[in-house]
Each structure stands twice: as structure tokens, then as C-alpha cells.
Design brief:
2 domains, Polyamine Oxidase, Chain A, domain 2, single chain, FAD/NAD(P)-binding domain, globular, 19 helices, alpha/beta, 5-stranded parallel sheet
Length: 472
């Protein structure tokens, strides 16, 4: 029987482990932290009994993931919950743009801009299923559905700033801008429209669900499946070299490229090691979790029932803030994402005190205190919010990296999403999972298709490893 060791127990490491074990490989997972899950953990961060997601929280691409969906993890206790409102983008004066699962309802709410929204985002949503294999795979390959993918690509290659010219009202422009800002990149950069298109279309096609009981339920379910397949998991096991893997046939590395290069050491070809060390990390998140009495008093009606709220104002404000973070400047009014998971999963709350998840986009490795700027942004659109806060838990970029070493400088996407790196991460190669060391594969979010709890980098890296084992 072939053997494999997986270094790291985030959703990608566990996905790789499950796929290998399901194909007859003996698998061990080694995790440096005391708990599994990487960025997919949940904890009582503010007050006893209030359950917060440590990082990953909203999961459109996880529920759509061909790999996760095919595992039937409901048998391991995973339950998806959908909010009534997928996303609200709040604007001054109580205005808002609302992203419903129903494309027609979203378009109707955008008024005169509705037909153009439906003609772009709605069109991608209607072909979302066939696009998924290409969207969630290596980018430098012949697509499975070339005509459909080419049509998507004509819009996806554009900067978000070019796409929003289709709309005249603040609502549609801001809604798309907030979606595109998930790239942590300048919104006038090529390909930033792709992020807005994928996230907007996913809301219409599959919704933006949460995992009941916290995001840790996803990795707990994967871990349960792995154990059922005979795999084992060891926590508190930091790996510093391949020699510690006891001669396993396969090493799967759920690591950032720089850490992988250090672990592989002189075994890795010089050019590949240099590419891993040159790999760029992007702007950071600054996370603040709140215990809020009575919830957030949003001015906007639908924000009060939205699973996710984008807080950043107009497209122009968001674009300026994102440009600042890329340049290394802390914006006065940062783009803020707010999660209200408790609305659909009330077991996360205690009485009238609710856990609110939030983070702001800040410069890479930002060492300042962005807490007040984040609170001020929410207060701007929800007067009285400050007075309802009963406790906070803050994790700036350094603390995020300490909690998850893959988040270098607070970059929760495990790599900058701009320029050439967006297409060729972690390096230019037909096999982005290969490390150049026989039997060693990179399976983190630094490989295609990138960040998220969908497990696709782990699955695809494991598939490459199985093909290699079959050729031996």
C-alpha cells in the first residue's frame, strides 16, 4: 500500500487526505496547531457561548465544489444554511443594493440598471454549473467548455472599473465593486472583474450559505470522513523537513510557497525554489469579532436580515480604499465585510447577545490599530452600533499569521491576486501542484483555484499525486 503524509489540516490538506485515502493510500495528517482546520475553524472569541468563525465564514464555492458536493458530507453531520438575503451593500442615507438568490429580484431592485445586471451577472449564473470545472481548476489549460469559458473570459479579463461603466446608479456599481474587492487588489487592475462575476453569479446559482455550528463543521466533517477511511490526524506536530515524514511515498504540503521551499530545502530545483521564494503576498485582513446586544441597527432594511453585509460606500470609495491598501497606506475609510451568521444559525448566540464577524482590508503586514476605523465604518451605516458592543476580539495581520502560518503578513488569500500571478500561481507551469521534488505536491490556496473552503486545490493536487503513483 502506498503511503502519504499531509502537512497542514486546512480544508485543502484534508481534501487531499480524503481523496488519497479514498483511493487506497495510507494517510497521515500532521498539523502544527493544537486544533485542525487552518482558516476553517470556529471559536468562542468574545464571550462564553458565542461562536465566531476564525476566518472563513461564508461558503458559496464550498457548497458548489464538485469535490465536496460529491463526498456527501451530510453523513458526517455537515449542514448548510442559507440566509434570506445573500448580501446587502449599504450606502449612505439608508440606501442599499441587495443581492438575492433570485436573479430577477436582484435586477428589479437595481431599477434601470437591472437589465444590464441580468445580462452580465445573470448570464454567468445561468451557465454556472458547466463553468465550474474550468473556474475551479488550473487556469493554464484547455478549458472543458471552451466556447462558454471564452465568453466568460471576455468580461473576466477586464478591470472591475471598466465593467461598472455598464451601470449608472450607485447601487449596481457599488454592489459589483464590493464583490470584486474580494480580490484584495486595485479595482482598475485586469481580471478583477472575474472575482465580481464569480461571486455574484455564485449567489444567484447556489447562494452564499454558512455551515451550521460554524465553519469548523466543514473540516470536522472532512476529518470524520478521513478517519472512516483509515486515515489519522496528529495535532501539535510541526514539520520542518521532509526527513520527518518517515519515508512516505507522497508528501502533500498545505503550506504557503515560502514555507514549502524551506521544508523541501536543497531537494527542490533551484529555479522552482526561487519562484516559490518570489511568490508575492497581498494586502491583509484586520479582523474584529464583536459581541453585540440586539444585533447591528442597520439603517438599510435588508441589511438587517443579510448573511453578509459589504460596508464601503460607493464604488469610487471602495476603489480608492483598495488602491491605498495595495500601495501600503491605511485608508481612512477601509472596505469592511460583516458576517451575521447568527441570523440563520441562532445556536451561535446566547440570549440577546450575538456574535458578529467582521474584517477590514488593510495594507500587507499592517502594524497599526484599525479597530476604530472598522467600527466607524459600521457606525456610519448603523448609528448606535457602538453602544451595543459588549465585547470585542481583535486579530490584526500579525495575529492572523500567528494563528495560521499560511496567512503571511495577514494575507488570508495566501497570495496576491493581481497581474501574472493571478493566472500562474504559484509559478508558470502546466502542473501548478508539482514542487519539482518527486512525490511532493503543493496543495494550499497558493495553487489554483485559490482561496476558499472548497477543497479544490487539495483535491486536484491529490489527483496529480495519484497519477504519479500509478506511473511508478
Amino acid at each position: 500500500m502506498s503511503s502519504a503524509v499531509v502537512v497542514g489540516s486546512g480544508p485543502n490538506g484534508l481534501a487531499a487526505a480524503v481523496h488519497l485515502a479514498g483511493n487506497g493510500v495510507s494517510v497521515r495528517v500532521l498539523e502544527a496547531a493544537d486544533t485542525i482546520g487552518g482558516g476553517c475553524r470556529s471559536s468562542e472569541l468574545t464571550l462564553p457561548g458565542l461562536l465566531h468563525d476564525d476566518c472563513s465564514a461564508i461558503h458559496p464555492l464550498a457548497v458548489a465544489s464538485p469535490f465536496l458536493a460529491g463526498l456527501g458530507l451530510e453523513a458526517e453531520g455537515l449542514r448548510w444554511l442559507w440566509p434570506r438575503v445573500q448580501l446587502a451593500h449599504v450606502l449612505d442615507g439608508g440606501r442599499e443594493a441587495v443581492l438575492w438568490k433570485d436573479t430577477a429580484r436582484t435586477a428589479e431592485g437595481l431599477g434601470a440598471d437591472g437589465p444590464a445586471w441580468d445580462g452580465l451577472v445573470g448570464r454567468v449564473a445561468r451557465g454556472f454549473g458547466p463553468l465550474l470545472d474550468d473556474l475551479l481548476g488550473p487556469h493554464l489549460r484547455v478549458p472543458s467548455h471552451p466556447v462558454r469559458f471564452a465568453r466568460f473570459g471576455l468580461d473576466a479579463v477586464l478591470p472591475a472599473s471598466a465593467v461598472v461603466r455598464r451601470w449608472r446608479g450607485d447601487e449596481a456599481r457599488a454592489l459589483f465593486g464590493g464583490l470584486a474587492a474580494h480580490a484584495f487588489a486595485r479595482l482598475d487592475a485586469p481580471f478583477t472583474a472575474s472575482v465580481g462575476l464569480v461571486l455574484g453569479a455564485s449567489a444567484h446559482a447556489v447562494g452564499w450559505p454558512i455551515a451550521q455550528g460554524g465553519s469548523r463543521a466543514i473540516t470536522d466533517a472532512l476529518a470524520a470522513r478521513l478517519r472512516a477511511l483509515g486515515g489519522t490526524i496528529e495535532t501539535g506536530r510541526r514539520v520542518t523537513s521532509l526527513e520527518e515524514l518517515d519515508g512516505a511515498d507522497v508528501a502533500m504540503l498545505d503550506l504557503a510557497p515560502g514555507a514549502a521551499a524551506r521544508l523541501l530545502g536543497p531537494r527542490q530545483p533551484r529555479r522552482t525554489a526561487a519562484a516559490y521564494r518570489r511568490y508575492r503576498h497581498g494586502p491583509a485582513a484586520y479582523k474584529v469579532d464583536f459581541a453585540v446586544e440586539g444585533g447591528i441597527p442597520w439603517r438599510s432594511e435588508h441589511a438587517r436580515e443579510a448573511g453578509t453585509v459589504h460596508v464601503g460606500g460607493t464604488f469610487e470609495e471602495i476603489a480608492a480604499a483598495e488602491a491605498d491598501t495595495v500601495r501600503g497606506r491605511m485608508p481612512e475609510r477601509p472596505f469592511v465585510l460583516v458576517g451575521q451568521q447568527y441570523l440563520d444559525d441562532p445556536g451561535r448566540s446566547r440570549g440577546g447577545i450575538h456574535p458578529v464577524w467582521a474584517y477590514a482590508h488593510v495594507p500587507h503586514a499592517y502594524a497599526g490599530d484599525a479597530t476604530e476605523a472598522l467600527i466607524a465604518q459600521i457606525e456610519r451605516f448603523a448609528p448606535g452600533f457602538r453602544g451595543r458592543i459588549r465585547a470585542t476580539a481583535v486579530r490584526g495581520p500579525a495575529a492572523l499569521e500567528a494563528h495560521n502560518a499560511n496567512y503571511v503578513g495577514g494575507d488570508i488569500g495566501t497570495g496576491a491576486n493581481d497581474g501574472f500571478q493571478l493566472l500562474a500561481r504559484p509559478r508558470l507551469t502546466a502542473d501548478p501542484y508539482a514542487t519539482g521534488v518527486p512525490g511532493a505536491w503543493l496543495c494550499s490556496a497558493a495553487t489554483p483555484p485559490g482561496a476558499g473552503a472548497h477543497g479544490m486545490p487539495g483535491y486536484r493536487a491529490a489527483a496529480a499525486a495519484l497519477a504519479w503513483l500509478a506511473r511508478r
